[in-house]
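ok so for the tutorial part 2 we go from a plain amino acid sequence to predicted structure tokens. step 1 is just haveing the sequence, like this:
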Amino acid sequence: MKRGYRRFLVICAGMLFALAACARLQPQVALGPEPGEKTVAIQASDFKFEPNNIKAYRGDTIVFKIENITNTGHNFTIKDPRGQKIQNMDIPPKKTAEVKISFPETGEYDFYCDEPFHAFLGMKGQIQVVER
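step 2 — the prediction. this is what the tokens look like for a chain of 132 residues:
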């Protein structure tokens, strides 16, 4: 029985690594360079955010409208270019959550779902903030 259990664990681990390897950034969605508040609609589904690759400009404020289209609870966590958490909010199943975030500096802002294994399986993305 131990041998069968080990084989099962190896197969499960292999499947998890294969799923994680498939997680990639989608084509970049670029927001316009004109100053002001912008809105980005994001769908949270099974182990992905769509879109998950966004280009914005230093000084932008973005209103994220994140729709959880699954029956599972998700989360939206975002870190600044130094790795400091700047926002963390839950998104209940079949609900939409809204958050407004300002981007005062250039760099890559990573976002992800902090539910166990969700980011590992591909539920993550980035916002590239550049100069105008």
